[in-house]
Write a structure and sequence with these properties.
The chain is mostly helical. It is built from four helices and no strands. Helix 2 packs parallel to helix 4 and helix 3 packs antiparallel against helix 4.
Length: about 100
């Protein structure tokens, strides 16, 4: 039985640290789309053990990159909501001061 080798687009074979650097430069959508491709390739099977492990490791790195983007988005939303809440609180205090006069 012949084993398939992963293609260059999904195997991360450009080198260990180069592959990590390339993942670090990916935007969320790019990392997500590549991760989907990695999962599909692994689900199809037919890869030898080493190729499967290499591809799985790249998938893990891509998933971490997606999480980093999502965490950054969460923080931005929380900051924006905090700013809105602070503005509302400042506005409420000003309104309360007007009631005392």
């Amino acid at each position: 039985m012949a084993t398939r080798k992963p293609d260059a687009a999904t195997d991360g074979s450009s080198g260990g640290s180069d592959a990590e650097e390339s993942i670090e430069s990916l935007g969320y959508e790019q990392a997500r789309d590549e991760l989907i491709g990695v999962v599909r390739t692994l689900e199809q099977g037919g890869l030898d053990l080493d190729a499967s492990l290499t591809l799985w490791e790249r998938g893990e790195a891509l998933a971490r990159r997606c999480e980093e983007h999502l965490e950054g988005a969460r923080e931005r939303i929380e900051t924006a909501l905090g700013d809105v809440d602070a503005d509302d609180a400042d506005g409420d205090l000003a309104d309360d001061d007007d009631l005392d006069d």
